[in-house]
Amino acid sequence: MFIELLKAALLGIVEGITEWLPISSTGHMILVEEFIKLNTSDAFQEMFRVVIQLGAIMAVVILYFHKLNPFSPKKTLQEKKDTMSIWYKVVIGVLPAAMIGLPLDDWLDTHLYNYQTVALMLVIYGILFIVIENYNKGRNGLVQSFHQLSYKMAFLIGMFQVLSLIPGTSRSGATILGAILIGTSRTIAAEYSFFLSIPVMFGASALKLVKFGFHFTGLEMMILIVGMTVAFFVSILAIRFLLGYIKTNDFKAFGWYRIVLGILVMGYFLTFE
Asked: What residue spans define the domains of the chain?
């Protein structure tokens, strides 16, 4: 039992770091699971891979609770309206992924959840990060606040989030790239990506739990709780790191990292599969 819980903790660390950095949590989980295999059913592992994200998403809820709480007594009426505006823009941004992702969930798991797709997406989006950052060099995003983020922009960023349905793309990577392309600052791009993740991850986790059927053994429940708890605490550190990093740096380092990781993933599976 101890070994299985240790594996869950290690997977929680991987999830907590990679969920928020634009480097693909799925790509890392596929590679790490080659070395850290849970002694559970395939159905549980498929569910665990998604539901562990609930721990990560709670980190966003805690860190941004005041900013996202429209009922805070500390806020003026205008501030409450501004907060509701953020939520409206989040809903608009989530619609494309919900409409396209829900019907395709099973098909995507069956046909695209493989190392070839993940490795390819890691490299492609790594290159895109470098190209886009070079293109934007010296430019400041026109959108420096959520008040300046229009509903049209929110929807367009949501369309970019649809791309993350392909494993290895990185949900945060797709939304951040999209936001930067349409003219937001890196900080707004990152924070809006965080906020979009709240309904997306809750929805995806609920879907997987329903499909799994809530039939947990005692060990499976403990594995899930440990993984989510570790992911929560590690996510807080990862989010704070990213927000501090992008104040003085661009995303090109993540692009190069993705390219190297994609090559390693492809090389590993071609060699040992």
From this structure: 2-272
